[in-house]
């Protein structure tokens, strides 16, 4: 079992998460990582940590070699280290492994990493001292975020460099961002918050860097985003189907049940809910007013594509749940008191689903852009002006907004190329097969931003198209989305105006969930 986070409440407000020896939940991770909720350690966690530390201390005087306690690391594991040099060994490990480069990693990712490493410490399987775990909790509680760089992890033997930059800070070296985002030396920031720098003892250096915490943290955050984005994709699809005078008959429950994928059923149910009581749909429902036998795939097959993405998310959630319930370290302290080397740090399970999600994200964005393109094309948009322009020719309308979406989709296709099939051996061929899971996570984060922007352009364009269908009334649900867009300062149809701020306004609405009507599954 690994550490569960129990949220303590005061007047209904979440104020702190308490780390215990049981699995954390995704919601709790998001609260700490993304919303800055503080943490503490339970008495049960401290007892479990102390018990495993005693095992390590008993082995420290053993004349036999024990990896990570009295030996070097990686390809240097055969080198015996005398006791008087072991503090220097741990210090050197962290300093040498804090070799990241590139842009700073986002605060929410670093906080997720720290929390997951603390969670593993609380299982009593790593052998760290209680003071070391308490230092991680204190950093999170104080809002001090170690500076971690984008490059440095190969997704095997743990996210080594990123986690080493975190460990470096608890020793009083490196840099942090404080709660206000100011860059400060750790040697200055820690004492200012009452946190004493640590001198690491036997085994602790390895215990702080041997984990999939970076890639797992990014996976959990991505899954939270995808829950919102895939519902938003259903909203955008419904608005486009409605504005393009499409049919909702294909979304009928009995038709969808003929292919019983759960994600498809959920997406189709959302489309039925969103299009209910639409005056636009009613205007062409009678046989003598409907001239099309069936809609294009980008409309008709939206539940199938969105649903497949939902099912991919469900699989990724199952993998994330198992990883959250894991105690990943090498060597690991077993429940019966052995200290055993293992390969549980390999990131393949997480890396695969991160890549799988990037493929799904690219496809959902792709079908969104195709619906958007139909809205702009007078040959296919059933009576709407070219590019929804006010005075076509003088005005360009949504023409270049579609270009923007198309450019993002092209980028998403590149980001869908799997990272986990790559492998660059390291550590003098000791680490001769690596997962590249960290890189899969980094590109997925970029892909999610791209999907958000494509959906924003579709919603923006579909909202204008629904206005152009007046006096026909949109469905109450889709109409409420259009009204939310207008309330955010995005005007309705009219002469050309500066579009970039309008796109960003809708991006913001998607990110905060403002465009999701009640009742969506």
From TrEMBL:
Pathway: Amino-acid degradation; L-histidine degradation into L-glutamate; N-formimidoyl-L-glutamate from L-histidine: step 1/3. Its main location: cytoplasm. The keyword Lyase applies. It is found in: Cytoplasm. Keywords: Histidine metabolism, Lyase. It comes from the Bacteria. NCBIfam families: hutH, PRK09367.1. This is Histidine ammonia-lyase. It comes from Pseudonocardia eucalypti. The gene is hutH_1.
